[in-house]
Amino acid sequence: MARIDADWLNAPATQGVFHLLTGAGHPAYAVGGAVRNTLLGAPVKDIDLCTDARPDTVMQLARKAGLQAVPTGISFGTVTVLWDDTPFEITTFRRDVETDGRRAVVAFSTRIEEDALRRDFTMNALYCDADGAVVDPLGGLPDLRARRIRFIENAGQRIREDYLRSLRYFRFHAWYGDPGEGFDAEALDAIAGNLDGLAGLSRERVGAEIKRLLEAPDPAPAVAGMRSTGMLHSLLPGADDKALAPLVALEDQTDTEAAVIRRLAALGGADLAEGLRLSKKEATRLETLRQAIGMPPGELGYRLGAEIARDVLLLTAALLETPLNRDALTCADEAATRRFPIRAVDLMPRFQGIELGARLKSLEAQWIASGFTLTRADLLGMTEGEN
User: Fold this and answer.
1) Residue-wise pLDDT tens digits, 220-266
2) Which residues of 255-269 are buried (b: 16+ CB within 10 A; e: fewer)?
3) Alpha-carbon distance 357 to 347, whole Å?
4) Do both 330 and 357 map to the same domain?
5) pTM (2 decimals)?
6) Does 29 share its domain with 136?
7) 188 and 175 in one domain?
């Protein structure tokens, strides 16, 4: 029997929540990401538990123990219990009664097997008890060990239960799949055959999944898989992943948040900000990157700063399929430290209003074109004799 041993599992808070349930006669298991990631040696962010105890029972047990319990998704069987400020999502075993491709009507169950069957991928249907003993109702361990992303039972049926699972398939492949293994043929066929269902998904859900996919160390193979099934065009009309792999190869992969927007810029496509419900900050950065492609390195650094300039130079190299121009990068970095030596007051009263603004802009352009070598005296000298 497989067994895990991890700090999160052995922590007093986790063991306390387990005991809260088992001490009242209810089975309790950690499930999903915490178990999966521990077995893969990946970081664990959230701890989800499941049990046969109904939500109201979980609430009562928690409050009796002096713990805060929040009904975060009680209609779906989920209660969040806080133990020493650590949140634990506890969900009652469930089975789907009805689905519409976006959300499900569920019925509570007493069987872990039924709970497992309603999940998406075999590697997500792994459980462990308080002692770390792994419970594998559907035989997902071999898939996990092979880093094989496989839908539970019928792939098409799983997708029609929630069409977002098609996108999740590629996100999971980017993070956990074996690139050398390739994609599961049944999964690709099912995804390609259910593209129409994507139109009913909320843009927020789609945007969140795509951003999480693009955060992966190398999302290029997964995005290529999306293109091969027709999903990329369905979700991002006009997108082209040709530059994504070259871009990933050029990146240092230390700035995840910036990398997502940079990678979106490489993909292109129409109306990404609205289509993916990007935040105002994300949309502004994306538009800035797109508009700045082709700007000279010095002007890039001076006008947009070293960080944005670097992103634009990375994008340019990826789009042209050329090595990153290190001299251009140095130029942009140096230009980012420059400060235009002329102020409006320096040109007054000779120039006023619109003419003042135009003259400042003209002098700044000449200063940039000189490689920032023109001095303040040089620039002021250019105004002599002008009205």
Assistant:
1) 999 999 999 999 999 999 999 999 999 999 997 656 667 999 999 99
2) eeebbbbbbbbbbbb
3) 10
4) no
5) 0.90
6) yes
7) yes
